Every structure is written in structure tokens, then in C-alpha cells.
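Inverse folding, one chain.
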């Protein structure tokens, strides 16, 4: 009987270079824009106490792959699992834990967006938030831009100090803490916000002229990180997946209402259907997450994995 390989989170981390993940995600998004790949819609259910089960997926006819990711959150714990299939014969190619995969996927999508939307000569970024996703977000920008400095801000001084040190140690990039949000973003050409905020705390009017703004947190309909009025200043607003954004991005829903005609997708950018303005006042990317990006990273992990699972 066929026994597909099992990859732990440690195996995924060991098997995937972020630069390779960015390339794979960009290719998958291009395939989607050309009608050769797509997302399998998310479904979920909830129960008491404060528990939920989720499932989503993606397919890519160019690579011959299908993936499904499922996860369950409860008050006492959570786990997630991805299954990767060969779309030509239905064979299970790999099973893997998908917490680390999700972090890499989210960062890779941000890398694709930053490469397409930020100024080509941008050499500095600001990271707002110091949680689990933050380090890979910085690393993704460093893959597509030559960063000379990173500025760090979060509400807790101890957290931003520790994270600043981690950037220097793990990524070997000069980093410094900022005492205020305004100080953190002043004249910064790339700003990434990735927090668990439920209410908007990032105001309009503090982003530098010409900046690119990645908004990565707040992916549920009740949550927001930034004042949606910021979008009035954006010459180009881009999402990874339009359906997910229309269903669950409070910031964009509040701003665009029923008329999303000005919102582009990363696929539009990568295929040239829409392009970055020559000198934009502001560009904004709102990442919501999508199964196709999970598939792309999982395919890299499975292809590169060798040996027994790492405990």
C-alpha cells in the first residue's frame, strides 16, 4: 500500500527556502490569472465553547497538484493539516503539518506583493507587530529588496526590543526600535502591519508619500488594523483573492462598499493587466490568505523533503 511521506512543521521549515516559496507562489498566482489554477472556497463550522473547524484548498493544472488544508481551533489547543495530491491520478503525494507552512505562505505572498508594488530602490522597511508572523514578513521583503535597515514598532516596549534583536541575529539586518507609531513609519518606503488587532489603530496621514503598505492581519470580518480612510490616498489597492477580501476584509468592505471595480488582484499585476503607477502617492496590498498559495508552498516542501520526519 502506498504510504505518502509525513512532514512535520520542522520538516517544512527545513525543506522550504523563502525565496523559492516566493517564486512558487508568484507562478501559481500567474497560473490562476491565466485560468489554469484556482482556489477551493473556504468552509467552516463553529461550536461551543469558542471552537471552530475550517477547510480550504487549491488546484494548479500547470503543476498537476491539488491541496486541501484543514484545521481545528479549540480553547485548549489547535492543529492543522495539509494533504497534497497528484491531480492527474488522484495519488496522495504528501501529508504535512501546516502551521509553519501557513507562516511561510503568508510571507511569500507579501514578498510577491512587495516586489510588484514597492519602489524598486526601496532599501528600508517598517514592521508593525512582533508576533509569530513578523520575522518571516521581514525576511520576505529582504528577499525582494536590499534592506539596509528595519524599524520595529509594537505596543509593548519589551516585545519590540526583543524582536529588533532577533532581526539582527536571525536575518543579519540592521534594525532599530521606534518609540511611537509615527516615528516608525516616517519616510519609510515599505510598511508591513501584521497584528491581531480587532479595532483599527493605524491612522490615515502618517504614511510617507510613495510608500507601499502591506496589511496582513485582520482577516476576519469583525477585525481591522488600519483606518479604512487610508484607502482614499491609495493610487493602487491590490488583494491576493478578491472573493476572500469581499467576504472578510472589514477595512476594504467599509471603504469600497458595493463598488470594487478599482481593486486589483496580484494576478492582474503579474500578468500586466494592471500596473503600478510611475509615482504613486501610496500603494496598498491587503492579504487575506488563499489555498492556492498553500498548495504552492506545500509542493516545494514535498519536492525538497528527504529522509525521515523530524520530531
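Residues assigned per position:
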Amino acid at each position: 500500500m502506498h504510504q505518502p511521506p509525513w512532514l512535520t512543521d520542522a520538516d517544512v521549515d527545513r525543506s522550504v527556502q523563502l525565496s523559492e516559496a516566493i517564486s512558487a507562489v508568484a507562478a501559481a498566482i500567474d497560473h490562476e490569472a491565466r485560468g489554469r489554477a484556482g482556489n477551493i472556497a473556504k468552509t467552516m463550522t463553529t461550536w461551543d465553547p469558542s471552537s471552530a473547524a475550517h477547510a480550504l484548498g487549491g488546484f494548479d493544472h500547470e503543476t498537476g497538484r491539488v491541496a486541501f488544508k484543514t484545521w481545528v481551533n479549540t480553547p485548549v489547543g489547535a492543529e492543522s493539516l495539509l494533504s497534497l495530491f497528484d491531480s492527474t491520478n488522484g495519488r496522495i503525494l504528501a501529508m504535512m503539518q501546516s502551521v509553519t507552512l501557513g507562516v511561510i505562505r503568508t510571507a511569500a505572498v507579501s514578498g510577491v506583493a512587495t516586489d510588484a508594488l514597492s519602489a524598486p530602490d526601496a532599501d528600508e522597511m517598517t514592521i508593525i507587530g512582533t508576533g509569530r508572523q513578523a520575522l518571516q514578513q521581514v525576511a520576505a521583503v529582504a528577499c525582494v529588496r536590499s534592506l539596509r535597515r528595519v524599524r520595529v514598532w509594537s505596543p509593548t516596549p519589551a516585545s519590540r526590543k526583543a524582536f529588533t534583536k532577533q532581526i539582527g541575529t536571525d536575518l543579519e539586518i540592521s534594525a532599530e526600535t521606534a518609540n511611537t507609531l509615527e516615528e516608525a513609519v516616517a519616510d519609510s518606503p515599505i510598511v508591513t502591519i501584521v497584528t491581531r488587532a480587532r479595532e483599527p489603530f493605524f491612522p490615515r496621514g502618517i504614511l510617507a508619500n510613495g510608500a507601499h503598505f502591506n496589511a496582513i492581519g485582520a482577516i476576519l470580518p469583525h477585525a481591522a488594523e488600519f483606518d479604512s480612510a487610508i484607502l482614499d490616498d491609495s493610487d493602487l489597492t491590490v488583494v491576493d483573492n478578491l472573493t476572500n477580501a469581499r467576504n472578510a476584509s472589514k477595512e476594504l468592505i467599509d471603504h469600497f462598499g458595493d463598488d470594487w471595480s478599482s481593486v486589483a488582484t496580484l494576478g492582474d499585476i503579474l500578468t500586466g493587466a494592471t500596473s503600478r503607477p510611475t509615482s504613486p502617492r501610496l500603494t496598498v496590498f491587503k492579504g487575506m490568505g488563499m489555498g492556492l498559495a498553500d498548495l504552492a508552498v506545500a509542493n516545494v516542501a514535498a519536492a525538497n523533503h528527504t529522509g525521515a520526519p523530524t520530531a
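The longest strand covers residues 37-47. The longest helix spans residues 99-117.
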